[in-house]
Amino acid sequence: MTDATLTHTYTHADLPGLMGLMTGDEKHGPAATSTLDVLWVLYDRVLRVSPESREDPGRDRFLLSKGHGPMAYYAVLAAKGFLPVEWLPGFGSYDSPLGHHPDRTLVPGAEIGSGSLGHGLPIAVGTALGLRAQGLDEPRVWTLVGDAELDEGSNHEAIAFAGPAGLDRLHTVVVDNSSATYARPGGIAARFEAAGWSALTVDGRDHEALYAAFTAPHPGRPHVVVARVEPKSA
Amino acid sequence: MDTMRDRFAPVVSRLLDEDPRVAVVLAAIGTDGFAGAARRHPRRVVDVGIREQLLVGAAAGLALTGLRPVVHTFASFLVERPFEQVKLDLGHQDAGAVLVSAAASFDWPAGGYTHMAPGDVALLDTLDDWTVHVPGHPDEAETLLRHAVAAGDDKVYVRLSVQSNGRALPVDGERFRTVREGRSGVVVAVGPMLDAVLAATEGLDVTVLYATTVRPFDGAALRWATETAGTDVVLVEPYLAGTSTAAANDALADVPHRVLGLGVGRRELRRYGQLEEHVAAHGLDARSLRERIGGFFGAAVRP
């Protein structure tokens, strides 16, 4: 299902154009653009996964938990050759595999289907456990959640477990666009740190800062990167 | 006699030894039984603590890496509390797991309604593609657990109960079994309801089918039974009354038929006490069943 005809190498500068091919989910527009830089840096420089290796047991996993506004996700997957650019204009239509929330059984490269909040991080915990149980100690597991999504209790079950369990292959990136109904007292990173995670907070638009935070060592502990972007309401 | 649940940890511990795909996920309930297995397979026996949403979500993640997770806690906390995880993390992700519950509809009456789950099978019925095993004896539970774990990446629910029949019958994880043949009606006894149904129908001219795998529903067996015994059907289920009525109706859709669904009443009883008292309160003891079954079939059923 990969785009064998992909000859053009897409760059970060192409992403707005790719996103522009998708229409019909303007309600989720801010949610989509908030994740754009995080997704790009992960897929361009961090994740060891490609269209060719997307079934390889040793690949890195990226679980998009925040499935709302997946245009940036689809644009990055298209730019990296997981799915054809020609699919993008059909976004949300009956015949398109690309919905307003992604479905793992329809989107090449999507590790999970998401949209209902609070599912990605618990599944990522299980994925990290499953890889560890099989002696696959190389692959890293990443999941992307929103700051408001963190309000879901299921995430707190996962955060509280993963730290003491020492799941050091588990990584979470929280895209913080200040959309939580009640700001978390002490900040988002503090919540993770209290549960034994390694935590860094960076500018979610600064690619070098994101890359440094994504690749920072965190022996024995799961790692969270809080990527701050402009508020949703701005 | 030991209970179905007494068999669970020993059987699954052996499966952990035999099959490197098997993993067990627990949420602080039932962990003692897996202490030995956890020492032998520390990475494949996971206790997530009292976190039932994580319990099911983590099982899905394990399955997505290729393992076969066996997930266990009380039915209320396994199916009802994390129901959206069951629907999305397993169903929508197309990931499989074996969910094994304990406590059933009212195994611990003194514990009250918080630990009762008569609606679990009906709730799973809102989802597609689940296999549901309801063993009626610890030996059957052992067989059906093995079937469940061996079932590829299927989604399987195994409902363990302290309610049990006196003796085990051979079960195959698929078909209903004919245990008595008559000419004036069909009674389907599910799992631990069999002994009471056999006592209730003693001397009545009815066919009794025994169902330990209720989903998929063996419509062919029901249909075949009605060819000699007629199309009056009574379902006796150890969970919510009427749970399988739609499945029986579907099996008989093109013939005139009547179906009576007996099982646990919908209304919350708000009583503690003993299991037998709850069985009687829901009209599932042999005497009540005889009255209700006989009344439904009418005079024709009596020899």
From TrEMBL, chain A:
Gene3D superfamilies in UniProt: 3.40.50.970
GO molecular function terms noted in the UniProt entry: magnesium ion binding; transketolase activity
InterPro entries: THDP-binding, Transketolase_N
Top-level enzyme category: transferase
Keywords: Thiamine pyrophosphate, Transferase
Cofactor(s), by name: thiamine diphosphate
Key word rRNA-binding present: no
Superkingdom to which the source organism belongs: Bacteria
Domain Transketolase N-terminal: 28-216
Keyword Cell membrane among UniProt keywords: no
EC number: 2.2.1.1
Protein family: Belongs to the transketolase family.
Name of the protein: Transketolase
The organism of origin for this protein: Streptomyces collinus
From TrEMBL, chain B:
UniProt xrefs under CDD domains: TPP_PYR_DXS_TK_like
Superkingdom of the source species: Bacteria
SUPFAM superfamilies xref list: Thiamin diphosphate-binding fold (THDP-binding), TK C-terminal domain-like
Cofactor section: Mg(2+)
Domain Transketolase-like pyrimidine-binding: 2-168
EC number: 2.2.1.7
Pfam families: Transket_pyr (PF02779)
InterPro entries: Dxylulose-5-P_synthase, THDP-binding, Transketo_C/PFOR_II, Transketolase-like_Pyr-bd
Keywords: Isoprene biosynthesis, Magnesium, Metal-binding, Thiamine biosynthesis, Thiamine pyrophosphate, Transferase
Functional pathway: Metabolic intermediate biosynthesis; 1-deoxy-D-xylulose 5-phosphate biosynthesis; 1-deoxy-D-xylulose 5-phosphate from D-glyceraldehyde 3-phosphate and pyruvate: step 1/1
Coiled coil location: none
One of the GO biological process terms: isopentenyl diphosphate biosynthetic process, methylerythritol 4-phosphate pathway
Listed GO MF terms: 1-deoxy-D-xylulose-5-phosphate synthase activity; magnesium ion binding
CC annotations in GO: cytosol
Secreted is among the record's keywords: no
EC primary class: transferase
Family according to the record: Belongs to the transketolase family. DXPS subfamily.
Quaternary organization: Homodimer.
Protein name, as recorded: 1-deoxy-D-xylulose-5-phosphate synthase
